[in-house]
Automatic annotation (TrEMBL):
Residues 3-105 form the FAD-binding FR-type domain. This is Oxidoreductase. It comes from the Bacteria. It holds the Pfam family Fer2. PANTHER family: CARNITINE MONOOXYGENASE REDUCTASE SUBUNIT, NADH OXIDOREDUCTASE HCR. It comes from Zoogloea oleivorans. Keywords: 2Fe-2S, Flavoprotein, Iron, Iron-sulfur, Metal-binding, Oxidoreductase. Residues 235-320 form the 2Fe-2S ferredoxin-type domain.
């Protein structure tokens, strides 16, 4: 978890949709919480040693609370199930200060696309854009109406007329027409998308096919990408400070191998999403498997995420 730790209390836990709950977190001392910008997330210690990242979805001007929404994930590694089944109102939690890898940038127009639980940072963005009088539209896609969270909040908001709902099980007329949305956005518009990996890939590939420049397309994954590991081999990492070499077996991550050798790297998501373990690479070529670095940053090959990424050759020299 981030070195800046906050202690909060769950003052409200509510069901927002099928398999989605929200947690309202307030400081235990009654003081204000650190400010945050739209698109920010926090680390939450769901259980001792079990840390997960969740996007803040309340109005960024609020200083008395943080609000997160959590989907019960059938492929959960323990985090979402614990939030749904174990956490209760009144419970004390440790969290990090907010961090933002999915920030809004100034633009003539913003197009917000949310898939499922990806509505959490997107809704926060809508709140911010509406408050500042910016030009935007929001599209919220869900498998069905009962799986769409925060719908009443959106419908009673001052920007309700800018939000379009799309349900997979609805009639064809209401489904997302991505090419039409992209073509109508304008040459200076910026696109923001969050949701399941397949949804993000669908939107980003659709934007690329319509010649949207990559710097106008912003996205954030909630989970790591699936990678074929059947051909993974062993390699070594060398610590620049001491010259020590550590072997990384085909079935182990760099983080795990270093930990066994007595070298601890701070980690959080361990899926290549949050960037907590970002490490400089001094020599060698990383095999990037994260959803955190941009394509340009990956091409530079001077940093990687050792929780998930590996080496293309036999050696990586790390700035450790």
């Amino acid at each position: 978890m981030d070195s800046t730790q906050l202690t909060v209390r769950i003052v409200r836990k509510a069901t927002e949709a099928l398999d989605i709950v929200s947690l309202e977190l307030a400081p235990v001392d009654g003081q204000t919480l650190p400010s945050f910008s739209a698109g920010s997330h926090i680390d939450v210690e769901v259980q001792p040693g079990l840390i997960r990242q969740y996007s803040l979805c309340n109005d960024p001007t609020e200083a008395h609370r943080y609000l997160i929404g959590v989907l019960r994930d059938p492929a959960s590694r323990g985090g979402s199930v614990a939030v749904h089944d174990a956490l209760v109102e009144g419970q004390i939690l440790r969290i990090s200060a907010p961090r933002n890898h999915f920030a809004l940038v100034p633009a003539k127009r913003s197009v917000l696309l949310a898939g499922g639980i990806g509505v959490t940072p997107i809704l926060c963005m809508a709140e911010r854009l509406a408050r500042t009088g910016a030009d935007f539209e929001m599209h919220y896609c869900a498998r069905a109406a009962e799986r769409a969270a925060f719908v009443e909040r959106i419908r009673t908001s001052g920007f309700a007329d800018r939000v379009h709902f799309h349900y997979d099980d609805g009639d064809a007329a209401q489904k997302l027409d991505l090419p039409a949305v992209l073509d109508a956005a304008g040459a200076d518009a910026h696109l923001y998308v969050c949701g399941p990996g397949g949804f993000i890939d669908f939107v980003t590939k659709g934007a690329a096919a319509r010649q949207w420049a990559s710097d106008r397309v912003h996205f954030e994954y909630f989970a790591g990408q699936k990678v074929d590991t059947s051909a993974d081999g062993s390699f070594e990492v060398k610590l620049a400070s001491s010259g020590k070499c550590v072997s990384v077996a085909p079935t182990k991550s760099v983080v795990a191998a270093l930990r066994e050798a007595g070298v601890n790297i701070e980690v959080s998501c361990e899926q290549g999403v949050c960037g907590t373990c970002l490490t400089r690479v001094l020599e060698g070529e990383p095999d990037h498997r994260d959803n955190y670095l941009t394509d340009e940053e990956k091409a530079a090959n001077n940093q990687f995420l050792p929780c998930c990424s590996r080496a293309r050759g036999k050696l990586l020299v790390l700035d450790l």
